[in-house]
Amino acid sequence: MRREARVLLTFRSIHRVLEAEEALLAAGLKPDLVPVPREISADCGMAITLAWADRARALDALARTPPLRVLDDWRP
After folding, report:
1. Residue 76 pLDDT grade (very low, low, confident, very high; cuts 50, 70, 90)
2. How far is the CA of 16 from the CAs of 2, 4, 5, 13, 74, in angstroms?
3. What is the pTM of this model?
4. pLDDT computed for residue 17 by the predictor
5. Nearest CA to 17 among 57, 76, 71, 54?
């Protein structure tokens, strides 16, 4: 069975993660909140993951939602 490609979005704080989740849901996307993997250093212990195919739409939605800023996006 093949795993779906995912993107992991990290943010500076849990407050930004929750704001980002709200913005992504409003954009019709399906974000999941997950703990930041140990291999990745982030200022916040939570991150958002969603389908890799939705990456561009997600980054666009977040760019239109100041002051949200993605610290980094990873493809696990």
Report:
1. low
2. 32, 26, 24, 5, 17
3. 0.84
4. 93
5. 71
pLDDT digits (tens, 9 = 90+) for 17-73: 999 999 999 999 999 999 988 777 656 789 999 999 999 999 999 999 887 778 777
* 53 Cα distance to chain centroid: 13
Query: To which residue do tokens 């407050």 refer?
Result: 15
Nearest to 40 by CA among 61, 70, 62: 70
Tell me the backbone φ, ψ of residue 25, rounded to 5 degrees.
-65, -40
Fold for the domain defined by 6-71: Alpha-Beta Plaits (3.30.70)
Buried b (16+ CB within 10 A) or exposed e, 33-52: eeebeeeeebeeebbbebbe
Tokens of 29: 């996307």
Return the structure tokens found at 47. 């991150």
